[in-house]
Design goal:
C8orf32 fold, 168 residues, globular, 7 helices, alpha+beta
């Protein structure tokens, strides 16, 4: 009897408030468990942000009341690329005095394949000028091949995931 994806979800460890690390390890686990393709080709990571990084901060700090109805941008990164190049040393999880805002995971921070130790800001910094103009072969190729994936608006996000990659 096959186990559904929902049944697998309860088997994933996660650390509250460390969303990026949780996504990183979830991608790896989905492949290891056979829920996703072993080469991770069917997985994508989506960052939500805007020019002021308000959408990102609102998702991260759910207790704060920030208008999420403003303009949101999305950065889509193909999981195989994300798992090679994402780096996170947890620096944004400390207050100005250097104290942890939330208890960090017990494992070491994520270091990228190129030995970068922190590039979260590169993923969540999305400007209007970064937004792709249409969802076509060039955009699909960018998502699959660019270190930081491709930035798009909400309509393009829906179009990207509703179209078959084979159409391009």
């Amino acid at each position: 009897m096959a186990v559904s994806s929902l049944e697998y979800s309860s088997q994933f460890d996660h650390t509250p408030f460390y969303c990026e690390e949780n996504v990183y390890f979830l991608c790896k686990k989905l492949c290891a468990n056979g829920v996703a393709d072993a080469d991770r080709s069917d997985l994508y990571v989506v960052f939500i942000s805007n020019e002021k990084k308000q959408a990102y901060k609102s998702v991260f700090h759910l207790s704060q009341k920030t208008d999420l109805l403003g303009i949101r941008f999305f950065r889509i990164v193909h999981a195989p690329i994300f798992l090679r190049f994402f780096a996170f040393d947890r620096r944004h999880m400390k207050d100005p005095a250097g104290n942890w805002i939330a208890e960090p995971p017990s494992y070491e921070p994520i270091v990228a394949e190129d030995n970068n130790v922190h590039n979260l800001n590169e993923y969540i910094e999305i400007r209007t000028k970064d937004i792709s103009t249409n969802v076509g072969a060039k955009l699909i190729n960018g998502v699959s091949n660019k270190k930081l994936g491709v930035a798009m608006n909400e309509n393009q996000l829906e179009e990207f995931f509703s179209k078959s990659l084979n159409e391009f």
